[in-house]
Amino acid sequence: MTARPEFDSTLYHTAVAQLDDVAKKVDLEPDLHERLRHPRRALVVSVPVRMDDGRTEVFCGYRVHHNTVLGPTKGGLRYAPDVGLGEVTALAMLMSWKCALMGLPYGGAKGGVRCDPLALSARERESLTRRYTAEIMPMIGPEIDIPAPDLGTDEQTMAWMMDTYSMTQGKTVLGVVTGKPVVVGGSAGRREATGHGVVHTLYQVLRHLRRDLRGQRVVVQGFGNVGSVVARLLSKEGCLVVGVSDVHGGIWHPHGLDIARLAHHVGESGTVAGFPGAEPLSNADIIEQPCDILVPAAVGSQLRGDNAGRIRATVIVEAANGPTTPEADVVLGERSITVIPDILANAGGVVVSYFEWIQGLQYHFWNASEITTRLQEVMSRTVNHVWALAEQNEVDLRMAALMVGVRRVADGYRTRGLYP
Ligand code: NAD
Questions:
Q1: How far apart are CA 278 and CA 252, in angstroms?
Q2: Which of 370, 76, 18 is nearest to 194 (CA)?
């Protein structure tokens, strides 16, 4: 079995190494293992955009479907300067295990456009989004593949995607994307869902560890959709959020940051850097500061073999996708640091996306408390299942979560067989 050169990236190596490890644990047949290592299909597109200065710039876009054995595919759309086919493929694979772990009728997908969203005007972002949507049109649809927001994209991006798709169909198609604004068919609670799920998962795991959320010192890397909600909810639960960072740098306050004031500061200045009263720290330094809980909520491969030995948290909850490399996993395991894996910790987003998709297909909308109750029910059930499986098999939480996800996808393949 060889890794395909076109997918080469750190995150792809991480995802395949995780699959190879779990394949041994669950005695996966070699033929099935080989099928799971490759995406079902991948599309690379050129996205020409008329820029504000009159030039035309051509961006590179991707959409990858990892597998479709359990239903249509589901996965976010990422705008970032270093997005590539390997990273998008790895993220699609992780989405497969995540959806299966949560018991959702989806395969994994992911999309991306290589660009710096902060350097684009709103008009340029809209043009880019609409042209990208048109280019990947054959790959998406409510019964084919349903994109959602991820790094560098948001509710507005999803509204433009939905509108572009709908214009080509001559009717409004709510089910083509999730994470839309509520006014055009979004779900109550979707904006906060990933952060909400992270906090609920952390609460459940701490309960198993006989620890309380209250009083825990927390560091959050990334203050976007996910990181800012996690920081706000944890501080509401009585945690001390002592460190926060974003792409521009980090800030530190040993007695806890005022998250409401920080959100206001970010709203005005666009970054956490320069928050009055806090000490400035680099992004690299902030994750190595003394704390109880570390929440990576930004980009992948932040905890690696070269810095894992210096992490001082006792629990890491992976709000980001793929923040820990396999080398770091070994070091953190040897140091008895509990890692709550991405496919479990950040699954609240896709669970509420599933709720939004169902609501859109039925034109019947639920209220915020129905969403929260159902989300917490699904998350609690899955955390407890994963915890019990980890104890039974004497494996860490990542291995236990992957065992459930990979087994379900493999069962789907076994039951459906190989066409033709
Ligand atoms: P976002 O674009 O809203 O925010 C990203 C944050 O990370 C920003 O504060 C940005 O400044 C910061 N950042 C970017 N590069 C960084 C770097 N190199 N170092 C430090 N900080 C950096 O994105 P988001 O939606 O909050 O997603 C964050 C992570 O959570 C991603 O890994 C994403 O895949 C994952 N995730 C998101 C969702 C969702 O519903 N949005 C669901 C599941 C997982």
A1: 5
A2: 76
The pair phi, psi for residue 103, each rounded to 5°, is 75, 25
d(CA 28, CA 26): 6
Pocket of ligand 1, beta carbon within 6 A: 149-152, 194, 221-227, 245-247, 283, 297-299, 319-321, 346, 349
What is the pTM (predicted TM-score) of this model? 0.97
Burial class (CB in 10 A: 0-12, 13-18, 19+), 333: middle
Distance 315 CA to ligand 1 centre (A): 20
Half-sphere exposure of 35 (CA within 13 A, CB side): 18
Question: pLDDT tens string for the chain (420 positions)?
Answer: 556 778 889 999 999 999 999 999 999 999 999 999 999 999 999 999 999 999 999 999 999 999 999 999 999 999 999 999 999 999 999 999 999 999 999 999 999 999 999 999 999 999 999 999 999 999 999 999 999 999 999 999 999 999 999 999 999 999 999 999 999 999 999 999 999 999 999 999 999 999 999 999 999 999 999 999 999 999 999 999 999 999 999 999 999 999 999 999 999 999 999 999 999 999 999 999 999 999 999 999 999 999 999 999 999 999 999 999 999 999 999 999 999 999 999 999 999 999 999 999 999 999 999 999 999 999 999 999 999 999 999 999 999 999 999 999 999 999 999 999
Report CA-CA distances (Å) from 293 to 68, 179, 230, 287, 389: 36, 28, 12, 10, 23
Structure tokens at 190: 């979707």
Q: Are 197 and 347 in contact (CB under 8 A)?
A: yes
Q: Cα of 323 to ligand 1 centre, how many Å?
A: 11
CA distance 409 to 8: 24
Helical ranges in 50-146 per DSSP H: 85-101, 122-135
Please name which of 7, 366, 360 lies closest in space to residue 189, comparing C-alpha atoms.
366
Catalytic residue among 24, 74, 98, 110: 110
Containing H/E element for 261?
A: helix 259-269
Are residues 206 and 218 in contact, defined by beta-carbon separation less than 8 angstroms? no
